[in-house]
Specification:
single chain; alpha+beta; Rossmann fold; Tumour Suppressor Smad4; 286 residues; 6 helices; six-stranded antiparallel sheet
Length: 286
């Protein structure tokens, strides 16, 4: 590897010490480094690593400093570039970050030597089909969440799979998750934990107003549609859909969300040989 991108969450690396350390280490070894974050860097870092509009697809890898939320943002910002990501954990659980700050130099030496593997993760593509004919599209590595907004009211919505009616739900919303996102909001809502390299789609209702509504596991080739009907007691519903929790799109009666597996994937660098079950055991024991 010759060209490294560094994507830093300054809220996690407030004084930029870890960023400076990585940048200096790589620059001293003669490697090109590009900082993607917009935050102001220390003077000595700017001298070695110039902020630029470098095309991310020209890089060999991207080092993401932060937590899982930072990794999700980095994937969105460089989506389609194909650059593999290595997460450096400055957060808490860090399911998508495997390198701790104390292990950085060792990890960089292994990257330089080519001692690593890569794995791809499936993503979701979602189209919001408004009743007036407008279409908005978004992508997610973790999940696409349909949820209420405004007052604390139970939502009514209909689920279709491949055009066939599945069920009507009365709940706070619905999580449509990838295997990668299964350890996020889906886990908190009581959904199953899925091996992240798997290819499938999971539907998990949020606080369903029923005793027998559980998660549903679908094929990655399935198409999921969520329809917004008239609310309970003929009330207007206030709802929204979000992609990886990044932004919310308001929805009204008659609007639909169509969700399929995306043609794009997220690529991650793996240095550790431990299995997902080992990682899961460690995270759940902390």
């Amino acid at each position: 590897m010759k060209h490294f991108l560094i994507y830093t969450n300054k809220l996690k690396d407030k004084d930029m010490k870890v960023t400076d350390r990585i940048c200096s280490y790589l620059s001293d070894k003669g490697h090109k480094v590009t900082i993607l974050s917009e935050e102001k860097l220390q003077k000595e870092t700017r001298e070695k690593c110039r902020l630029s509009g470098t095309n991310s697809s020209e890089a060999d890898c991207m080092l993401v400093l932060g937590g899982d939320g930072t990794v999700l943002q980095a994937v969105r910002d460089t989506m389609g570039s194909g650059v593999p990501i290595l997460g450096i954990n400055l957060g808490t659980l860090g399911y998508m970050t495997e390198v701790e700050p104390t292990e950085v130099e060792t990890a960089l030496d292994r990257l330089i030597a080519g001692d690593y593997e890569t794995e791809s993760r499936m993503m979701l593509s979602g189209k919001v089909l408004f009743q007036n004919g407008e279409i908005r599209e978004g992508w997610a590595l973790n999940d696409i969440v349909f949820a209420r907004s405004g007052s604390l009211q139970i939502l009514k919505f209909n689920i279709y799979v491949n055009g066939q009616f599945l069920n009507s739900y009365h709940a706070d919303g619905m999580i449509v998750t990838t295997p990668t996102g299964s350890t996020g909001y889906n886990l908190s809502a009581g959904g199953p934990i899925v091996e992240p390299r798997a290819r499938l789609i999971v539907l998990t209702p949020i606080c369903p107003h029923s005793l027998n509504q559980r998660s549903i596991v679908l094929s990655p080739e399935d198409c999921v549609e969520i329809e917004i009907p008239r609310g309970r007691e003929d009330r207007q519903q206030t709802t929204e859909v979000s992609f990886d929790g990044n932004y919310g799109i308001p929805l009204n009666e008659g609007d639909r969300i169509r969700i399929i597996r995306s043609d794009m994937v997220a690529s991650f660098i793996r240095l550790n040989k431990i299995s997902f079950l080992d990682v899961l055991h460690k995270k759940m024991s902390d």
